[in-house]
Design goal:
Bound molecules: adenosine-5'-triphosphate, Myo inositol 3,4,5,6 tetrakisphosphate, magnesium ion
Radius of gyration: 25 Å
Low-confidence stretches: 343-382, 384-388
Shape: elongated
Number of strands: 14
Length: 388
């Protein structure tokens, strides 16, 4: 058994619904088979009584959201955060500051806009944020921003049951029926097919799902349609809103290259290991639009999820161990640089570690660039260590 696996403890914190939907017991079994100890975290008890942990997997979106207005939840999140900061070697999937932006569509859609600015392989349909009042007051602003009817209205909060309540608005009158805080976005015709991209570290999986049908572009007299998104793009969804009015050819999925670039851009921007992005292909142009980003989604239709998750965890554990070893070597070396005479028993402290001679010659860095610099410790040294 490799040293980075030995005695390692994986904690997890998921609500009953999530555990059941994922069939998380299967993941526990896989981990135990590889020699890990798996612990279900009880938030009602102090973490230090349940630890130590090398890895913690969670979906604490409810609690993170509640911590904004509920003091008990705030305390729980603060204690959790303090614990993982105190034991900084814990790998948290995923860190709270990285999860938070995905709980707020205002923040996550700004990220999608940035992604579009960086790489035009993907676009983010134009939208406006509604901070107060109804959509009616924002009608002029909506036109100025180049939005086109129909519009889709989504709540600002992106997680939880009420976050999936949406509306399709076909005219200015309909704008009066939706109120802040919400976001209005141009509806993009895409032949009722959505591509869910599920990301696990450096791996991703594309799953085809049903989606909203096409609507004629431009303002029309139609009444607004209120719907719950949970009935639209699940594998089993079967809604009149996903039934196309006329037969069309199956849309071509986004190319591997486009998906890879979108995932790469989002991973860099989000700093998350577990997330999903929803892509649709615009009927008129064939361009690919990103319309939603989700923290720790369901991974339904990805049979490789558990193995990908464990592989990702193992990659992180291994690189953490390498970084820790590198830090020790650097510390030993810099100690020797500062006081080489302390070592009287040996001709050279380099003999203390068989790797030290090559390490020492590689560490001849100018005084202005200390060997402890984080780039050196986390990038150069691990690479050198893995070669020796
Ligand atoms: N701009 C858009 N143009 C066309 N269809 C859209 C657009 N935005 C969303 N949709 C449709 O509405 C559905 C719900 O939208 P969205 O994915 O933003 O909601 P959600 O509740 O965050 O979904 P999830 O359950 O994936 O978190 C999508 O699955 C897609 O069918
Ligand atoms: O449970 P499900 O399989 O429906 O997963 C959904 C998940 O619900 P969860 O709360 O149970 O994780 C949702 O999270 P919240 O909006 O609640 O944050 C969101 O991420 C959806 O995108 C997921 O659906 P998917 O995109 O995978 O189809
Ligand atoms: Mg979605
Ligand atoms: Mg979503």
């Amino acid at each position: 058994m490799p040293s980075w696996r030995k005695g390692k403890r994986i904690g997890y914190c998921l609500n009953d619904k999530k555990k059941k939907k994922l069939n998380f017991q299967g993941f526990e079994d896989l981990c135990r088979k590889r020699g890990y100890e798996v612990i279900e975290i009880d938030l009602a008890k102090p973490l230090r009584e349940q630890g130590p942990f090398d890895v913690i997997i969670h979906k604490l979106s409810d609690l993170i959201l509640e911590s904004g207005y509920d003091s008990q939840s705030h305390q729980l999140i603060r204690d959790f955060q303090t614990y993982v900061e105190t034991y900084s070697s814990i790998i948290l999937l995923d860190p709270f500051p990285a999860v938070r932006p995905l709980l707020d569509r205002f923040e996550s859609y700004r990220l999608l806009q940035d992604l579009q600015d960086q790489d035009s392989c993907i676009f983010s349909p134009p939208y406006v944020e509604l901070n107060s009042g109804t959509g009616r007051e924002a009608a002029a602003w909506i036109r100025e921003q180049g939005l086109t009817f129909p519009l889709i209205c989504k709540t600002r909060v992106a997680h939880g049951p009420s976050s999936h309540e949406m509306a399709l608005i076909f005219n200015e009158e309909g704008l009066g029926e939706v109120s802040a805080p919400c976001l209005l976005q141009s509806f993009i015709n895409h032949d009722a097919v959505l591509f869910k991209v599920f990301v696990v570290g450096s791996s991703h999986f594309v799953v085809r799902r049903p989606s909203l049908k096409n609507f004629p572009r431009g303002e029309s007299a139609r009444k607004s349609i209120f719907f719950n998104s949970c009935s639209i793009s699940k594998p089993e969804s079967c809604s009149r809103l996903t039934e196309l009015d006329e037969a069309t050819l199956e849309p071509t999925p986004p190319s591997d290259n486009v998906v890879r670039r979108a995932v790469r851009g989002l991973r860099a921007a989000l700093g998350l290991s577990l997330f999903g992005v929803d892509l649709i292909v615009e009927k008129q142009t064939g361009r690919c639009a990103a319309i939603d980003v989700n923290a720790f989604p369901g991974y339904e239709g990805v049979p490789e999820f558990f193995s990908a998750l464990l592989n990702h965890i193992e990659t992180l554990l291994e690189s953490h161990e390498q970084a820790a070893r590198a830090r020790v070597l650097v510390a030993e070396y810099s100690l020797h640089q500062r006081a080489p005479h302390v070592d009287t028993a040996q001709e050279s402290t380099h003999d203390a570690d068989p790797r030290a001679p090559w390490l020492a010659s590689s560490l001849e860095t100018p005084k202005s660039a200390p060997a402890e610099s984080s780039f050196f410790t986390f990038a150069v040294l691990p690479a050198m260590l893995s070669r020796h």
